[in-house]
Design a protein that fits this description.
Elements (H helix, E strand, L loop, with lengths): L12 E5 L10 E6 L12 E7 L6 E8 L14 H10 L4 E10 L9 E2 L3 E5 L25 H14 L6 E2 L3 E5 L7 H9 L4 E3 L5 H7 L3 E10 L12 H10 L1 H15 L16 H5 L10 H10 L6
Parallel strand pairs: 1-4, 1-5, 5-11, 6-8, 7-9, 9-10
Antiparallel strand pairs: 2-3, 3-4, 5-10, 6-11
Helix pairs in contact: 2-6
The chain binds ligand LNRAV4D5 and adenine.
Adenine binds next to strand 5, strand 10 and strand 11.
Catalytic activity: S-methyl-5'-thioadenosine + phosphate = 5-(methylsulfanyl)-alpha-D-ribose 1-phosphate + adenine
GO biological process, one term: purine ribonucleoside salvage
Pathway: Amino-acid biosynthesis; L-methionine biosynthesis via salvage pathway; S-methyl-5-thio-alpha-D-ribose 1-phosphate from S-methyl-5'-thioadenosine (phosphorylase route): step 1/1
């Protein structure tokens, strides 16, 4: 059946799928939207899925975006993060559940375990565009807590309910986000361990920074696929290892994400998914530049992203 190319109601919840999670089964696909933003096109067209709320039965729309593109043709340093986050915000999204395949930096986080991280260490190299505020519009947003603690509580509760049923959960953790696309050296891997890193990936940043600027509550769910290259077992990470573990545990990953969507679709979270606690923060954090000094092009782009903020 052909699906629509537009969706008129605001969509509040999105899933960004990562390596091995290119789609979500068990939902009704109602639209595929090609969004164009002032920062270009997102990684892929955005699929709108309908999910019946477990309490009211009413369909909750979910936006699904594949981070690396429909065919996993976009490398981590090429992901159009600004377009991705801007496109989702423009559809009304205020809560993002982002999925990521990660290497484990700690013995107790075994391959196929899940981690709900609460911190990030930035090891990207400044080659990825990482802010909406530039070119004559200066803005500074707080990033002490890169993830949304209220959304994280819901995610942890869902993970706990699946524990013992194939899911092993680590309720907190520090993600080291490296540049890639090459994996780390052994010296780097050991350094990150000494810094207290729990897991490592190539995609938490600038995704989380841009979500924060876009006033979107953002939480990542990580699935461990390997022990990177620090472990004594000598099995250094390979793409086959990552893909093999993702594939073997895909059902659990999908069940986990579906459980989170079930929960967030409940009436009691209607306020939370609107991220009211973040609404309006950029009006002030992004108003450092006096009107006389504002770049026209930058202002035009930000007016698209935050209608009414910078008139
Ligand atoms: C294919 S291994 C490295 C690749 O896997 C992770 O992707 P994602 O975070 O999108 O699940 C990691 O960040 C790297 O991009
Ligand atoms: N070891 C690793 N390093 C970086 N990103 C990863 N994604 C999955 N495993 C990884």
């Amino acid at each position: 059946m052909a699906v629509a190319s537009q969706y008129s109601d605001p969509i509040r919840i999105a899933v960004i799928g990562g390596t091995g999670l290119g789609s979500l089964a068990g939902f009704t696909h109602v639209a595929t939207i090609d969004v164009k933003t002032p920062w270009g096109s997102p990684s892929a067209p955005i699929n709108v899925l309908h999910h019946p709320s477990p309490t009211t039965g009413k369909a909750t729309p979910i936006a699904f975006l594949s981070r690396h593109g429909t065919h996993h043709q976009i490398a981590p340093h090429e992901v159009p993060n600004r377009a991705n986050i801007a496109a989702l915000r423009s559809l009304g999204v205020r809560t993002i559940i982002a999925f990521s395949a990660v290497g484990s930096l700690q013995e107790e986080i075994k391959p196929r375990d899940f981690v709900v991280p609460d911190q990030i260490i930035d090891r990207t190299k400044g080659v990825r565009p990482f802010t909406f505020f530039e070119g004559g519009m200066v803005g500074h947003v707080g990033f002490g807590d890169p993830f949304d603690e209220e959304v994280a509580k819901v995610v942890r509760k869902c993970g706990q309910s699946l524990e013992g049923d194939g899911v092993r959960l680590h309720e907190r953790g520090v993600v080291v986000c490296m540049e890639g696309p090459q994996f780390s050296t052994r010296a780097e891997s050991n350094l990150y361990r000494s810094w207290g890193g729990s897991v490592i990936n190539m995609s938490a940043l600038p995704e989380a920074k841009l979500a924060k600027e876009a006033e979107v509550a953002y939480q990542m769910i990580c699935m461990s696929t390997d022990y990177d290259c620090w472990h004594q077992d000598g099995n250094d990470v390979t793409v086959e290892m990552v893909m093999g573990n993702m594939k073997a545990n895909a059902e659990n990953a999908k069940r986990f994400v579906a459980a989170v969507l079930d929960e967030l679709s409940k009436e009691e979270y209607a306020e939370l998914v609107l991220a009211k606690h973040l609404e309006g923060q950029m009006k002030f954090a992004g108003a450092v530049t006096a009107p006389a000094g504002r770049g026209e092009e930058a202002k035009r782009k930000l007016q698209w992203l935050y209608p009414g903020y910078f008139e």
